[in-house]
Amino acid sequence: MSIKIFVTGGTFDKEYNELTGELFFKATHLKEMLSLGRARLPIKIETLMMVDSLNMTKKDREKISDSIYNSREKRIVVTHGTDTMVETASIVAKKNKKKGGGKVVVFVGAMVPYKFGSSDGLFNLGSALAFVQNLDPGVYLVMNGRYFDWDNVRKNKKIGEFEQIK
Q1: Largest Cα–Cα distance in the chain?
Q2: Of 55, 71, 144, 161, which has the highest C-beta tally within 10 A?
């Protein structure tokens, strides 16, 4: 069972410019993260875009959704910015329902960039890889060792964590 990881950017892959103090994108850190985590799974990585989710367009979200459902893999992880992760998951879930719902799609992100060293990204990625292998077909968000149904979760910006709505 091969797992496909689609990279879209988000805090996961941000870099820090020490001269300007700005965050920016260079390249994904996924291969390094998988190596550090000693992942021994059959994984295929494809970078779709490197954008902050606050700057994602409807066209970007459709590209993510189309890529998922044009993929041969049935188990998909999407790295995504946390601010609009639920919005993209909604679009993917609607397409999942139309296509018969046969895929397990897990969205994952980080609150702190991986390159900062104190990032939750490595742990979240490991959790996403574990959950994508074990959950039933559907669309989920994975953060902080927990999984959430896409339509029953929100980002609590006060505490910097995702939480179940009901």
Answers
A1: 50
A2: 71
